[in-house]
Amino acid sequence: MDNLIIRSRAYSPQLKRAAEAIEQEVWNHLGFLNHTRAHSAFYEGLLEEFADYQLCLVDVDSDEPVALSTCVPLACSGADALPSEGWDWIVETAATKRNGAPNILGALAVSVPLAHRGKGYARRMIRALGELAESRALGGVVVPVRPSAKAEHPDVPIKDYIKWTDGQGRLYDPWLRSHVLSGGRIVRLCERSMVVDEPIPFWQTWTSERLEKSGQYLIEGALQPISVDLDRQTGRYEEPNVWVAYSN
Fold this sequence. Notes:
Aminopeptidase; 29% helix; 9-stranded mixed sheet; 7 helices; alpha+beta; 9 strands
């Protein structure tokens, strides 16, 4: 019998703390992404405001979460009108544009600790997002998907990468493939899903090298290189994701 249950972070302070610890564990190696303007200004506040939307897959035997999803309700004119921005756009829209009633669920992340991967929990959290949208009378879910294997090919343009297939003719990228097999529809690219623009010393802590000339530099885990401009004394990273939509 399945000993897993979906609960929201609002269930208890203990579950909230455990969920925060999982987020830290899963995403710590990509900590530079925490420095987008939207993340710094709005992310933590949105998780607090919409705590009942932040889902945890809980093992009832241990009372510990084994997977998470984070999301927010927002007003959107339709999946086919989604912009070139992605993750940042969802956060900023949910936080600042509230003239209309929310009509869609914007998914921000699915997080599964290393010890629990390969058990189907990520796809279960995708289903949970759809069920949450339906229960809140929202028209569906939009997701700026971060292709999970793209970091192994940072020099390949995202427009070419998403055309790759495996030996069975399926999408090459495992996370994109999971979304499509779960009923998601690829809508378009969001080439500037998350944008980090920071001074050169910030980036030197992530590249572990001196950035002494303008150009492209690789960071472990990034989906494409950062662009360093010595005249401006800044480096800019634009994270390319892929918009995927689910309809209820």
